[in-house]
Amino acid sequence: MNLKHSKQRDSIMEFLSGRKDHPTADMVYMGVRQSFPNISLGTVYRNLTLLADIGEIARIRVGDGVDHFDADTSPHYHFICKECGGVSDLEMENMDTLTEAAGKNFGGRIEGHVSYFYGQCENCCKQKMS
Amino acid sequence: MNLKHSKQRDSIMEFLSGRKDHPTADMVYMGVRQSFPNISLGTVYRNLTLLADIGEIARIRVGDGVDHFDADTSPHYHFICKECGGVSDLEMENMDTLTEAAGKNFGGRIEGHVSYFYGQCENCCKQKMS
DNA sequence: TTCCTTGCAAATCGTTTGCATAATG
DNA sequence: CATTATGCAAACGATTTGCAAGGAA
Fold first, then answer.
1. How confident is the model over B102-117, as pLDDT tens digits?
2. Nucleotides, chain D, CB distance < 7 Å
3. Nearest to A45 by CA among A65, A61, A59
4. Is there a contact between A96 and B98 (Cβ–Cβ < 8 Å)?
5. Whole-angstrom Cα distance, residue A62 to residue B104?
């Protein structure tokens, strides 16, 4: 896999690094287009996939049917708000014990797990009370 | 939401109840067509969605881009084999402590979590060794 | 007779891909 | 120069939907 430099990829990476809200491909497209009006959706998808494949970014699936992306590749958990659909990080210890527990009564080999949490985010909680 | 009886829905429910492999909509379609040659894919989708909405069945997402369905709605975890794509049940205690742990440093309200495990199933493990 | 449900086909949504051209090393 | 990357548009797979006709209460 031979990589070649590209301004488009750089600006995608830069955009993603400046964000904590786990944007979708389309949001990345919209954002990068500000500074790169001619970039195409295809290029955004191709680069997001490439960057995720080489581990530069993480692809996040939280059950809403759209892939989200995260420049923070350190292991951590995510939360999705059922009201507004926003995705955020969750501060909690790693649950690798889960993987062990799952392997107890299982014949095959368990490599890992995917977990995410859902509910109402702080903002949506407040709005409901008022 | 006023329900009316339908043979198609019955046979979908019946098909799903006789299965432990968490079929996709298309697999349900193929299966039900044996006894119901004229059923349409749209009807299958409509009924699976309806049944999932009223809690008769569960919709399962394990990151492979396709929805799986399960007639067993009791809370339990799932495993997806990265080799063959098969989805199976996992026998392990409920990890509701997870939800609590996640709520510790979080401003909003956490209602629950979705978790699934991945790796190699028993069959694929054996094949690799031979 | 009311209104839910169906079959069919077209539409939608997110994502991928083929191709000719442009940019990189 | 050899290749990788791009823009564009067409293709894709899974799922949803509009509509006229059929079936249940």
1. 998 899 999 999 999 9
2. 3-10, 13-18, 23-25
3. A59
4. no
5. 20
| CA A7 to C1' C10, whole Å | 40
Cβ of A125 and B109 within 8 Å?
Answer: yes
Interface test with A, best of B82, B90, B120 (most A CBs within 10 A): B90
Give B120's strand partners. Answer: A109
What does the alpha-carbon distance between residue A109 and residue B120 come to, in Å, rounded to a whole number?
A: 5
Contacts of A92 in chain B (CB under 8 A): 101-102, 104-105
Query: Which of A63, A108, A119 minimises the CB distance to B119?
Result: A108
B66-87 exposure pattern, b = at least 16 Cβ within 10 A, e = fewer: ebbbbbeeeeebbbbbeeeebb
- Is the pTM of the predicted complex or chain greater than 0.90? yes
A7-17 vs A25-35: helix crossing angle, rounded to 10: 110
